[in-house]
Amino acid sequence: MSGQRTTASDSYFPASGDPRYRVHRYEIALDYRPGPNRLAGTARLSAIVGRAQLTEFALDLAAFKVGRIQVNGRAPHYTHRGGKLRIRPAKPLSAGVAFTVEVQWSGNPKPVRSPWGGLGWEELADGALVASQPVGAPSWYPCNDRPADKASYLLSVNTPSPYAVVAGGRLLTRTTKASTTTWVYEQTAPTSSYLVGLSIGMYQTVLLGDPGLGGVPQSAHVPAHLLPKFSRDFARQPAMMRLFEELFGPYPLGEYSVVVADEDLDVPVEAQGLALFGANHVDGVRGSERLIAHELAHQWFGNSVTIADWRHIWLNEGFAKYAEWLWSERSGGRTAQELALAAHRLLAAQPQDLVLADPGRKLMFDDRLYQRGGLALHAIRCALGDGAFFRMVRDWAGVNRHGVVTTAGFAAHVARYAAEPLDGLLASWLHEPSLPPLPAPPIPARPGNPPTSGGSSGG
Length: 459
Hints:
Blueprint: E1 21-33, E2 38-49, E3 57-60, E4 65-71, E5 77-81, E6 84-88, E7 98-107, E8 120-124, E9 127-131, E10 151-160, E11 164-167, E12 170-177, E13 180-191, E14 198-201, E15 204-207, E16 218-222, H1 227-233, H2 237-248, E17 256-260, E18 269-271, E19 274-277, H3 289-297, E20 306-307, H4 314-330, H5 336-348, H6 367-384, H7 386-399, E21 404-405, H8 407-415, H9 423-430
Parallel strand pairs: 1-10, 16-17, 17-19, 20-21
Antiparallel strand pairs: 1-2, 2-7, 3-6, 4-7, 5-6, 8-9, 9-14, 10-13, 11-14, 12-13, 15-16, 18-19
Helix pairs in contact: 2-3, 3-4, 4-6, 5-6, 6-7, 6-9
């Protein structure tokens, strides 16, 4: 596991999070009423002070009514405004010590406003879902909202019994009393606050494939009327899982779930052990299959191997984009080389003002970042050759499992697999705005490895 930890504020969101301490566990209990969109919660955070004594610290929490707060069982002084809960403990917290914070809050959750629209808790026509990337987590719970601060989670949600609750991690218990049901999930893997996923809705649960001994359990939570189309669209996900375990190494979490909301979403969203799709991503003709591959790949790249700072977002999106191309190549579609040439033509006709390794906050979700990230990885594959490239990728995912990473760390990692220095190639793709030419000669396609008949039913 990577030991990198950042002690500075995030370069793109300096107001988010507090780098002076880290949380290692959240225990959150929620009560949610979908009709009035009413949320009440309690959270217990187990944390560790950094290298300097803390006389005060901050949590990120949107505009809820805050009830009781305790630090190590004692009431602190606190203020709550502008999305920040600033807490001054009754006595200072010494460097390196463990401490606990307990917070009660209630109100009507709503998305956090951002340049990309509302982020976080979203009320649906019948239910709710959470899509927090990058800074939406405070829309529903108090957290240290920075990607490098990863913790385990115990999440309990009480809601009216007709609704299903889906979260990342293992479902421990489901208990019904009178007209409500409490769902308790645990995610033991270190998880960034933006990756804590949650969906509440009227869902049918189905299993995807047979994981077999040692396989990854995969479940789906889908509105009943979408099940026939869903069954065709997601039929090849188990084959994707097998391919990505071959290419990237063992799946880094205990299970994988997908949710299809009963309304349209702009884009699917990854969460830890979970991906959220909209009804518009289910068409019965596998029209969104590349997105299924993209979200699954994020479980390795972004969720297990997590960026230390948002300026490194290409490490999440470039790998997920390249996984789309690898799935196409290995399942009988266009090769990665063909897809790379098409992406290169597309980017060559667009403005050359994006620096992949530091795109700036305004461009961090620009489609060019995704395409250029995939191209950068393809260029590295061309330079290394398939054997060294896929060893490099598997080792990157393995060495940094559940850790945090940077672009500089990735460049140093790649260099260890190269027969000759790649400084110029990496600099041109990662640090220069102009689009480099794709390396020549083109690499041969990997031998065809289409899914088995059991994994490709429906098409």
